[in-house]
Design goal:
The complex is a heterotrimer of chains A (125), B (448) and C (527). Chain A is globular, with a radius of gyration of 13 Å. Chain A is α+β, with helices and mostly antiparallel strands and 125 residues long. The model of chain A has no long low-confidence stretch (mean pLDDT 91). Chain A is built from four helices and nine strands, in the order E-E-E-H-E-E-E-E-E-H-H-E-H. Chain A has one domain: OB fold (Dihydrolipoamide Acetyltransferase, E2P) (Beta Barrel), CATH 2.40.50.100. Chain C has 527 residues and is of the alpha/beta class. Chain C has two domains: 259 residues, Type I PLP-dependent aspartate aminotransferase-like (Major domain) (Aspartate Aminotransferase, domain 2, 3-Layer(aba) Sandwich), CATH 3.40.640.10; 118 residues, Aspartate Aminotransferase, domain 1 (Alpha-Beta Complex), CATH 3.90.1150.10. Chain C has 14 helices and 13 strands. Classes of the chains: A alpha+beta (125), B alpha/beta (448), C alpha/beta (527).
């Protein structure tokens, strides 16, 4: 069983103890095309589930990244700020956006698991 | 009709291909209540000669600046534009091309925009410049909105010596966008304006013009420091961009955004437009900038080329989250600016600035000798303010009757402000000869 | 016979080993000339102007005299002229060929208009000269306003907005000013904008603090009337609608939409970008519109100039006319013209302008060109403009209906919308198709806009294209569509092959922006 959860806005969240790591899915990075810019929140910011956490831009599009869960920002990925291509290269891993200290783990239950998300993406094609 | 190539035969054939009887059928979605069979109540078509006669008659009713001793500035300046400028901007490939959205076939436009951006950054002393705004006044409004975005604050403070119509444009935008604004009372040359004390931790920016509305030059270093100490930005406004050939640029005095009116270089007076807004800032704020940006890149063969870039700031992608709603800007006026600047070059730009300064300095010396006249300015470039012993509205009028267009009365732009009623703002550029200055002096002696 | 022409030039075509495609030493390809940046042809000591150093004056710069080098290039006039002529050769233009950019109205720009705008009485007058010395300029503004009001059937006009988006802003400000005057500014916070709108519409509404609410399109490419009515309410300030819309279609229900908008106490803003299709035939005032901007650089043919300058006058209904911004021109009883510049003057006139959009009085250079265009066409010629532009677009739509995939049933107005269904399975995308048009000598149509159809191709031929020109364009698109469907992918995905530049790397440009030229770094000194 995977500890990773997905939203229908194509964000993923992976939880380790009370720390939630958030990024965009591989499907999302493919749809966006070459990522050229990432705007990340300040560490210490409080986010509620559904709040805008970050912005990701390709040449022709700008998208908001919404936080799937609530919590305080404890870390942001400086690597993708400096080298946005990292999002395209490893969206589900090194291309993560922010880490939150989770305030309400029950929010995770509302999100899709890997199989459900795969089915959801398949339905979009 | 000379501009419409379709003939009646063509139209018939085309309607046949479409499969309708008449062109009316193509308009069948128009609701009946709005259907018009007849022509609107306006004159019928005219040949070139007739149009020339009508418009020539209207043009003839105006006093062209080049036909008289002419000393009007206040945000628009008459300079000599080399003949090659107007020739080059009328080349079809520049004149009749659209915004460079297809970079492979618009490298001409893109390259001159890149050159334009570079020149604007150089003369203002800033890191980056955009590919133009509509004009200086609207650029000033956009600069204030940008400062609000950068600082995440909501209040701007405008100097009282900012061009009053620029201030009105900012006020209008601020009112409608629900931002706060403080406009200082008119600040005449020689009177210190205590704007630093108006800055607090809610202030997003301070807006100062130099040379200001009354022609006075300002050292921005202290106010830049005061603004930065409170986390606010300094916006410097330069309506006479030629001044930067002689004067320390705002970028070297701590400005965070520089807004200029580029009309002086390459562009005519045109009764107020089209002009070209210059907009420059620090590298770290580039993503908060309004307007188009051109950037360097390479093509599939590895050759250098240019594209519009960072477009995600703009309305066609970001829609309601865009940094500005601007789309069309001042492309061809940028080109005129760039060509004229190329002709001037480093030495020509600086020398032309010195010639302007000398012209105004000499005129000020002359007019100061006229009994009752006082020059208010201490430091100026090519424009200064006179105090006249009579209301300036009468002086300007009487001068015009004597064939001298002698300047702008301050009360035209600051109606109802008692202390400016006897002030006349006078500009002199390289177009004025010694005879023009003598004519001005003589006329002024007569009307006072 | 023999021995003829042995010394003269050969008269037959030579066989070349290279097939005409070798790399040249210069990088030039005959008439296609490479050009460096101005800063790279800098030659200190050269200068393109002759100016004498001024003498005998007192410096009044105080401690503000500029120090040091600016970095501007030094170039003589012949080099400057050559530089810009070479740059110009890298641009496509209407004068060179058909420019079918949908929603942009790239029509012929009569040169008479250029000549008129350069008359010293228009081009060489200052906006702040005494008004008695600019009576003809004020008359021209008054006259242009009159034409715009007559053509639109609207009683009010302002000329000052500097472009279409600025006009939108102006129109929406007038609407908000009217709501403030009614005491309903607080309660009306929502603006309805169709999904198919230009990006400037939502950007404008958002700038004024309005919440933008999207109205969906129906299957016919028009506003879904029922969905629209459902969104109306006491909190709606306005609707911003383009008509003809960005799908190139006339909004059939527009009168009903206007009625519903007014019944809800809101105002109707119309984006007039596509006025060309109906000028002289349909008056927006008869449709119930409250404010509409007019792009003089589209309908009235002031040149686009590589992205401006334009002009965006706005016409107003009776309800909004009193709020039109400063300045405006009035005609006095004695036949003279007066520019109303201040709130005090306006008050005396009985109007309540909402403020000021720009310093001075607007884009006079565009006003002169537009009036010259209007006088030339007259009421009859302008009606013909609308009819021919609609005819050309429908001819394109009908001729290509089996080759490309039209998005909606015709008739269209002045532009024809297709989507990328015809490219399905070919591996060719809208972008590739458009880039292949460049090799054929055409500027591509508007692509990927409007957003309501997939891979949009929006074609606006305009009325100044001859049938012969449109026929060749149609034949070209048919050939390209055939090639795409018959697996000639290389013709598309690598296109353009023959333009001054191949496809440019926009990703690299955005990731590491280089927005100005910098002097090359001096070579590192040896350790």
């Amino acid at each position: 069983m995977s500890d990773i959860r997905f939203t229908d806005q194509h964000e993923w969240v992976r939880v380790d103890a009370d720390i939630a790591t958030i990024g965009i899915t591989d499907y999302a990075q493919e749809q966006l095309g070459d990522v050229v810019f990432v705007e990340l929140p300040e560490v210490g910011k409080e986010l509620a589930a559904g709040d805008e956490a970050a912005v990701v831009e390709s040449v022709k599009a700008a998208s908001e990244v919404y936080s799937p869960v609530s919590g305080e920002v404890v870390d942001v990925n400086g690597e993708i700020e400096a080298t946005p291509a990292g999002v395209n290269e490893d969206a589900m891993g090194d291309g993560w956006f922010v880490k939150l200290r989770l305030t309400d783990p029950s929010e995770l239950d509302k999100l899709m698991d890997e199989a459900a998300y795969a089915e959801f993406v398949a339905s979009l094609e | 009709m000379r501009y419409l190539p379709l003939t009646e035969t063509d139209r018939r054939e085309m309607l046949g291909v479409i499969g309708v009887k008449s062109v009316d059928d193509l308009f069948r979605d128009v609701p009946e209540s709005a259907w018009r069979d007849g022509l609107v109540d306006l004159p019928r078509r005219k040949g070139e000669l007739e149009v020339e006669r009508i418009l020539g008659r209207m043009a003839g009713k105006n006093v062209a600046a080049g036909s008289v001793p002419f000393f009007v500035g206040a945000g628009a300046y008459r300079h000599h534009v080399p003949a090659s400028v107007d020739h080059l901007i009328q080349r079809s490939e520049f004149l009749t091309s659209y915004t460079p959205y297809q970079p492979e076939i618009t490298q001409g436009t893109l390259q001159y925009l890149f050159e334009f951006q570079t020149m604007v950054a150089m003369i203002t002393g800033m890191d980056v410049a955009n590919a133009s705004m509509y004009d200086g006044s609207t650029g000033c409004g956009e600069a204030v909105l940008m400062a609000h975005r950068v600082t995440k604050r909501r209040k701007a403070v405008l100097s009282g010596s900012l061009h009053p119509q620029y201030a009105e444009v900012v006020k209008n935008l601020s009112d409608f966008a629900d931002y706060e604004l403080e406009i200082m009372p008119p600040a005449l040359p020689g009177k210190a304006e205590d704007i630093a004390s108006r800055i607090c931790d809610k202030t997003s920016c301070v807006v100062i013009q130099t040379p200001d509305f009354f022609g006075e030059l300002h050292d921005l270093r202290a106010i830049a420091e005061a603004a930065h100490a409170k986390g606010a930005l300094l916006i410097a406004v330069v309506p006479e961009i030629l001044s930067l050939g002689a004067v320390t640029p705002p970028g070297e005095m701590g400005a965070d955004i520089v807004v200029g009116e580029g009309q002086s270089i390459g562009n005519g007076l045109n009764f107020g437009g089209p002009y070209v807004g210059l907009f420059a800032t620090r590298e770290k704020y580039v993503r908060q900038m309004p307007g188009r940006l051109c950037g360097e890149t390479v093509d599939a063969d590895g050759n250098r080329g240019f594209v519009l870039t960072l477009s995600t700031r703009e309305q066609h992608i970001r829609r309601e989250k865009a940094t500005s709603n601007i789309c069309t800007n001042s492309g061809l006026c940028c080109l005129a600016f760039t060509i004229h600047m190329s002709l001037l070059g480093e030495e020509g730009y600086k020398r032309l600035a010195r010639i302007n300064h000398a012209a105004a300095s000499n005129l000020a010396d002359r007019l100061a000798k006229v009994p009752g006249v006082e020059i208010l300015n201490r430091n100026f470039f090519n424009e200064f303010t006179l105090r006249t012993p009579k209301p300036a509205v009468e002086v300007v009028d009487a001068l015009a009757d004597k064939g001298v267009i002698g300047g702008v009365r301050a009360s035209r732009l600051l109606p109802g402000v008692k202390e400016v009623e006897d002030l006349l703002i006078v500009a002199s550029t390289e177009i004025n000869t010694e005879e023009d200055r003598a004519a001005y002096e003589a006329a002024l002696r007569e009307v006072l | 016979m023999s021995g003829m022409n042995r010394q003269g030039r050969p008269t037959s075509i030579a066989n070349t080993a290279h097939g005409g495609t070798h790399n040249t030493f210069t990088g030039n390809k005959a008439l296609e000339l490479e050009e460096a940046l101005l800063f790279e042809i800098d030659n200190p000591g050269a200068c393109g102007v002759d100016l004498d150093e001024p003498e005998g004056y007192t410096s009044r710069l105080g401690n503000l005299a500029r120090q040091g080098r600016i970095g501007l290039p030094s170039v003589s006039e012949p080099e400057v002229v050559r530089h810009f002529v070479r740059l110009s050769s890298k641009n496509y233009s209407i004068d060179a060929g058909l420019y079918p950019l949908g929603s942009c109205t790239m029509k012929h720009n009569p040169r008479l208009n250029e000549k008129m705008a350069r008359l010293p009485g228009f081009g060489d007058v200052h906006p702040l000269q005494p008004q008695k010395t600019v009576q003809g300029a004020l008359e021209l503004m008054y006259e242009l306003g009159h034409w715009l009001k007559e053509l639109t059937g609207m009683p009010g006009v302002t000329l000052s907005p500097k472009a279409g988006a600025h006009g939108e802003l102006c129109g929406m400000m007038a609407i908000r000013a009217a709501l403030i005057a009614r005491g309903e500014d607080e309660s009306r916070s929502r603006v309805l904008v169709p999904e198919s709108a230009h990006g400037t519409n939502p950007a404008t509404a958002a700038l004024l603090g309005y919440k933008v609410d999207a109205i969906p399109a129906n299957a016919e490419g028009r506003v879904d009337l029922e969905a629209f009515k459902a969104k109306l309410g006491p909190d709606v300030a306005a609707i911003m609608l383009t008509n003809p819309n960005t799908c190139g279609l006339f909004e059939r229900d527009i009168v009903e939409i206007a009625r519903a908008v007014h019944e809800a106490g809101a105002y109707f803003y119309c984006d007039g970008a596509n006025f060309n299709a109906i000028v002289g035939r349909v008056r927006p005032g008869d449709l119930g519109i409250d404010a509409m901007h007019i792009n003089l650089h589209k309908t009235f043919s002031t040149p686009h100039g590589g992205g401006g300058p334009g002009a965006g006058p706005v016409v107003f209904s009776e309800a909004l006319a009193p709020f039109a911004p400063l300045p405006y021109v009035v005609k006095e009883k004695d036949g003279s013209f007066r520019l109303v510049e201040s709130e005090a003057d306006a008050k005396a006139d009985g109007t309540t302008p909402f403020g000021r959009m720009t310093a001075f009085h607007g884009q006079m250079g565009m006003f002169t060109r537009a009036l010259s265009y209007m006088l030339s066409h007259g009421s009859d010629g302008l009606r013909q403009v609308a009819e021919d532009s609609v005819l050309n677009a429908n001819y394109v739509l009908a001729s290509l209906k089996d080759d490309l995939s039209p998005s909606f049933e015709g008739p269209c107005m002045h532009e024809a919308l297709f989507d990328d269904r015809f490219l399905k399975g070919t591996g060719v995308e809208t972008l590739d198709f458009a880039k292949a048009m460049i090799d054929e000598g055409y500027h591509p149509m508007t692509m990927y806009f409007p957003l309501v159809v997939h891979g949009a191709l929006l074609i606006e031929p305009t009325e100044t294209e001859s049938k012969q020109s449109v026929d060749l364009f149609i034949a070209t698109l048919k050939d390209l569509a055939r090639a795409a469907k018959s697996n000639d992918k290389a013709r598309f995905t690598g296109a353009p092959h023959m333009a001054p530049r191949r496809r440019l790397d926009e990703t690299a440009a955005a990731r590491k922006p280089v927005l100005k030229w910098s002097p090359p770094a001096p070579a590192q000194a040896a350790e």
